[in-house]
């Protein structure tokens, strides 16, 4: 829901930053790897109850993730890069939730439900993206995959994870609230997909 607006606002800054990184000889693949390591650092820090450092590493992970796409478009995007980028994102998203469930026992049920909601939403997203590209329903534009929007997208995930780490005393309530958002997003994608694919049925 926030992604399109945030992209409009941040694109000029990200594009200029990507140009500088490209001039310095850095590659999008390297940024993806660095971003993943920063995200992994956040996961490890959560396991040691280092909430503020984990929050800083999470924000750095998202900043780096925002740069690898523009950098890839300068140097030439690749399917492999898109594949590794989405894999890195999903592994860190789920890793943070697993870490939170491990260190906050009262949040384990909520964390399990959130992981289930991720599985449901991610399956709908990836399957629908593949089928829509196959049937040429919509072009993905500069991105490697066709993104079907919804209530909870990347922007909402960034905000909610910041809240998880900054206000961990309210973690259970926050995770339940985000789980509802992600499940709603999954249902949005399912209904959209059913409607779109039925319209092309022979």
TrEMBL record:
GO cellular component, one term: membrane
Annotated GO biological process: phospholipid biosynthetic process
Protein keywords: Membrane, Transferase, Transmembrane, Transmembrane helix
Gene Ontology molecular function: phosphotransferase activity, for other substituted phosphate groups
Transmembrane segments: 20-37, 82-104, 110-132, 144-167, 173-192
Homology family: Belongs to the CDP-alcohol phosphatidyltransferase class-I family.
Name the record gives this protein: Phosphatidylglycerophosphate synthase
């Amino acid at each position: 829901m926030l992604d399109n607006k945030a992209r409009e606002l941040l694109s000029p800054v990200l594009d200029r930053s990507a140009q500088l990184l490209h001039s310095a000889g850095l590659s999008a693949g390297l940024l993806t790897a660095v971003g993943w390591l920063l995200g992994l650092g956040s996961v490890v820090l959560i396991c040691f109850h280092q909430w503020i450092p984990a929050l800083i590493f999470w924000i750095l992970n998202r900043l780096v993730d925002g740069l690898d796409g523009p950098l890839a478009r300068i140097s030439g995007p690749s399917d492999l890069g898109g594949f590794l980028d989405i894999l890195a994102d999903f592994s860190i998203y789920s890793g943070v939730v697993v870490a939170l469930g491990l260190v906050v026992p009262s949040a384990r049920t909520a964390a399990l439900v959130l992981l289930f909601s991720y599985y449901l939403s991610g399956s709908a997203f990836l399957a629908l993206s593949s089928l829509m590209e196959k049937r040429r329903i919509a072009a993905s534009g500069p991105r490697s995959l066709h993104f079907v929007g919804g209530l909870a997208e990347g922007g909402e995930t960034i905000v909610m994870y910041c809240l998880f780490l900054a206000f961990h005393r309210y973690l259970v309530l926050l995770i339940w609230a985000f789980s509802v958002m992600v499940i709603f997003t999954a249902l949005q994608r399912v209904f959209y997909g059913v409607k779109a694919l039925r319209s092309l049925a022979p």
